[in-house]
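[Q] Does anyone have a clean structure-token version of this?
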Amino acid sequence: MLNVSRLSCVWSVLFCLLATLAGPAAQAQSSALSKQLSRLEVGVSGVGEYNGTGSGVVQINAQPTTVNLRTSNTLGALVTIRYTVTPWVGFEGNYGYARYTENFTPFGAPPPDTGGVQTNANEYTLGYVVHPPVKFSFQPFISAGAGSIAFRPTPFGGQSLQEQARATYYYSVGVEKMLSSSHFGLRAQFRQLFFMAPDFQQNYLTIKHHTSTFEPGVGFFIRF
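[A] Here you go.
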């Protein structure tokens, strides 16, 4: 019985010791996790899509032909995930979506009719973001980065053309403001994306025109 009592005491002491050591470690891990989460935020914005126009010369029936491109304007959505280490060091990932029509004139062989390719444009970009430490009621930010836009013709309005991706570069400037809660804020921004106009892998649409999209937008973000 004496040995059993001593063994019980030993196990009790070991358990208390482990609990004592584990407490600060668990608190430290929790504190480190909270610190990392406080650097993370997710934003959702509605954006306007104002697309540029352009033209180029292609070969149609062995004849040099000028093809004009006019892209429709529309509304889209932008989701941004940011990780901010310091005001001068931050990173972001963007996913954007919009649906619009690429109107080519002429569209293939004469007569010079306009043909439209309705497409889903999906942006996938990564960038660097800074928040200059200024004393305003709102916080300005600047970001820039690169990635791609995948142009996916729709089943019924895409002329049965092929999907195509284009390298994309962008910059963004804007302001944001935290509301009464330290986890919720509003954001307004202006973005511009640069890329080569899609040709959907068709020779008669390959105008090789570098174009851009202007994206004013407003939305909200949640900071963890």
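[Q] Thanks! Anything notable?
[A] The chain has two domains: 1-38, 40-223.
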